[in-house]
Amino acid sequence: MEPTLAARALSAATEITTTALSGDDPGAVLGSVVRHAAELADADLGVVMVRADDGRVTVESAHGADTAGLLGLVLPAESAAGRVAAGGQPIVAEDVTSDPRTSRFVPEELRSYGPFAAAPFGKGGRLLGVLTVYRRRDAEPFSASTVEMLTAFASQAGIVLALAEGANARHRVTLYQERERIARELHDVIVQRLYAAGMQLDRVRRRMRRRFAGADGTRLGEAIDQLDQTIEEIRGTVRALRSPEPEPHEPQSAATDLAESARSEVRIAGELLGYPPTLELSGELADIPAERADHIRAALREALSNVVRHSGASETRVTLQRDKEGVRLRVRDNGCGVPRDVAQRGLRHLSERAEAAGGRFFINSSPSLGTLVAFDLPLG
């Protein structure tokens, strides 16, 4: 290979490496690869084709004066490009339309070209496809040194792109895990503290209602409403953080220990009620999918919140069970029942949660029998 050409190829490969590892769009990196290949080979057209599992190759990027209709063009595995992409040796032809190795599979869009060269894009286990270059009909054929340069360049550029895609995938996994960690801390720590503070304020308001002037009581009520609104906003943020679907190679949301979550919710409710609710746990609750656990936890929190705020109960029992059908939650109290306006407003979103998740929610409440809140959720 000529020293000047080798130096240009090295410079181009360095630029591509920097671009690929910076996390740029792979499509932009392919564009840079094919542009440099065309310039280094003094070609009128450069094309990168990516190989599919069935051996066919598809044009992913092209550079030249006439690329209309090329992107997305598919060539069969038996074509010259397909054979090179499968790991064969480079192929060089003086005229792509008349050489018996290439002529059978030349699409109409490439019939105005003559000299042709194809080199594997990548190497060994990191072979992505094929890099091809063309010159106009009757132009000088590609020299041996140019083909040697093209082969080395295509090999290095393909490996760099494959490594960069792996690095970007690892970065996406790390980013997703960090988003999940932030979401979990918001949900499990911040929301829990705001929830407890809101219930404490509400308890103070109910106990000291007669001592408050009207304006002070109103302001305290507004503060409680703002806390409730903040909790909903944080829950919305949690959903947004978790909303991007992880790619197939990324980890799914970590499982949640629902038993520990239930103990925490019951402990907070007990501090506000002045007595510890009874908690009964059964079945394996340590590996519940995070999304399902969030639904159960929200139902438990809402049910206990209503016991604290409205029931006046002296006994509360929480039952959490996992069986082959899924997870079943029951919260029973011996209080005065849930006020009608609360049943319509505060518990409506639990019914919506259950319906959206394929589960079931129901509530039985009366002044004489107390309240039963039930929330069932399948895990399959």
UniProtKB/TrEMBL annotation:
Domain GAF: 25-171
Gene3D superfamilies in alphabetical order: 1.20.5.1930, 3.30.450.40, Histidine kinase-like ATPase, C-terminal domain
InterPro entries reported in the protein's UniProt record: GAF, GAF-like_dom_sf, HATPase_C_sf, HATPase_dom, Sensor_HK_TwoCompSys, Sig_transdc_His_kin_sub3_dim/P
Pfam families on file: GAF_2, HATPase_c, HisKA_3
Keyword terms: Kinase, Transferase, Two-component regulatory system
Domain of life: Bacteria
SMART domains documented for this protein: GAF
Protein name according to UniProt: GAF domain-containing protein
Species assigned in the record: Prauserella endophytica
